[in-house]
Amino acid sequence: MTSAVEPGTAAAELSEAGRDQGAARRSGPLSHRRGGLEREGGTGTAAAGTPPDGHRPLQPLRGDNRHYLPLWNNEDPYGDVWVPDRPPVQVDVDVSKLTNLGHLEMTWRSRVHFHPLLVRILHKSRLRYYGKPEKKMEMPYQAYFEVADGSGMMSMVLWNSLCPEWYHSMKVGTVLLLAKYAIKSSYPFKTHPTPGDSQMKRFATIEICLNVRDPPTEISIIPEEMVKPEWGLPEVKYRFITRSELDDLPHNHSCDVIGLVTFVGRAERARKREHSEDFWLYRWAHAIDGTSDQPFILELFATSQPDVFERIHPMTYLVCTQMRVMTENPSRTVYLTTSNESQIFITGWHKGQPYTKDAKVKNFIQWTKSQSEADQIKKTVIGGYYPFPRPPDSFLKYFESVLKPIGEIGKEIEDLHYREHKRIAVQGIISAIRYISCSNAAEEASGGELVQVWCVKVNAKAAMIVIRMENFANEFRIYVHYQEGVNNIAETEESGRTCGSWQSDLWAQVKDKLLNYFHHSKIFPESIPCKFDYVHKDLLMQQYNLHAAVHQPVEARTDKNINEFKSANGLGYYEVTVLGINHDIAIDVAFLPLFSPDNPHLFQLEDIQNDTLLSCMSCISACQQKATNSGGLGDTFPLSDEIVKAAKELDGKHVICILDMCHLGDDKVEVFLNKIYKTVEPGVLDPV
């Protein structure tokens, strides 16, 4: 068997490391300080994104501040001011002059100056940016750590200018010698990680403050080889679980996981609060560990590790610490989400991490050695729309704040920021469905050929064929639009393909009298999950990450087009028309049947089992794909009788539609239909 190892390193890196250890649409990162903007001089460094070939990146704009904000969130360190790694220094540790955390808690009120501390970092939080436009603070950052000695564990806070100087160097497992620090009462509302050692005492009433002044803290990193057993410093312990153990864990349980990534979604943003200009940056991932046929489903928020977050891709070994189990969610599907103290690591970042000595990590590495890389890579998918977590079975369980008048759809879309994902609900009537097939006929054509795409528009009174030329390297798309009639089927001369549609009698009566008609059923390359191609992983990661924060030279890019990659679901999608309950406004949205025959656990059909229409669309598409793969269905994809029957059952009835919207850049906005609620269901009231 060939080991499923990322070429070059992963299992070896983990096992060797174990042996070694005994704003939104801004065009550039702008500061939040008021004042004029000027282009900064100076040279870039590799840590700040300078290409390895020596080309200098375009210098961003900044204001009066001494730092830059990252483009798309506030938690990531960005710019030359953030020191990569401070090397350990030779320090003479006089243990007779040290104090410990337990003694510090008992005596801190009676002292002004404190003896030095010798501690090990057990947990590390993401950065917190607390700058405000009206406040003049040069470096408004803080980061929490949990540090421990032989007496117990206590919080430590790195403040302001010390963050860019020390944050990267203070890793989990690092031993610190601290002098001239301050002590204050603990902030009562901060989060707390779950210690790996449940018996460790926690000193929660006070916290250690590291400041650049008043007093200026002295910080020394002690090399691991100099750490002596008699110092009594605790080892870093973890709470790793396997996938087979996950389903039995309670909600909000804290754990660590390791797995082989089989899917990673595109990077998206969500507002921290309604109408806020601050965004969380996140993505979804799946990872397997061989103990279950189900993957870990991971919701990964940015953890102030942008170099890792941006390079998560299928076939890498992913470690996530301090994850929280989410069982009390509307979809009832168990998944894990990052906490404030989570850290993520992928192949290339494992060496030297304390978890490499953990027994479950070693067991995972043994499992990967028995796996075939060729078999595993067939199951991998990257990017695209990911409709998770699913909405609840009853709309009553949903927050009323997501319900919007259908007439406000335009404003909701206009207010979206780059890669912002938003889920809303609208009330309306399912009035028309069209199946749009995407053929792979052009796969046989050589790359770059001009392929004729026939756009057929059928009308009950007259038919008009419009032919347009588009440059598709690997995909032949046939768009069939029906304006009138029920179950019309049109066939193109070129391919012999047929596509179906359904429309209600009501739609035929009102569609020409609408006050507003929003057309948002178009999907884009970023919307489609792709089969992962290891040779072109850099292009795929670039496609599904956010726009880069630094200039990328032309010679560093690839000429391969994203359209050339094979879709993970391979068929087409549905255009669904939702008519407002007053019959004067309508919107076309897309429904993308997500089904991967190579990895049926990636997009699970049972997730929409209580939604008859969408279940029919997904199940029929799954059957079509299976039949196509076996050569049994040929090139005919009519709108099935089951779909038409389910649509007719909703004819004229008021429903609530859950829509997922995402701004993909430029003027590209996708709007996907996620869930349909009947208003006759318990918990959903039909308006008077």
TrEMBL record:
<dbReference type="InterPro" id="IPR012340">
    <property type="entry name" value="NA-bd_OB-fold"/>
</dbReference>
<protein>
    <submittedName>
        <fullName>RPA1 related single stranded DNA binding protein, X-linked</fullName>
    </submittedName>
</protein>
<dbReference type="GO" id="GO:0003697">
    <property type="term" value="F:single-stranded DNA binding"/>
</dbReference>
<feature type="region of interest" description="Disordered">
    <location>
        <begin position="1"/>
        <end position="62"/>
    </location>
</feature>
<dbReference type="InterPro" id="IPR040893">
    <property type="entry name" value="RADX"/>
</dbReference>
<dbReference type="Pfam" id="PF17659">
    <property type="entry name" value="RADX"/>
</dbReference>
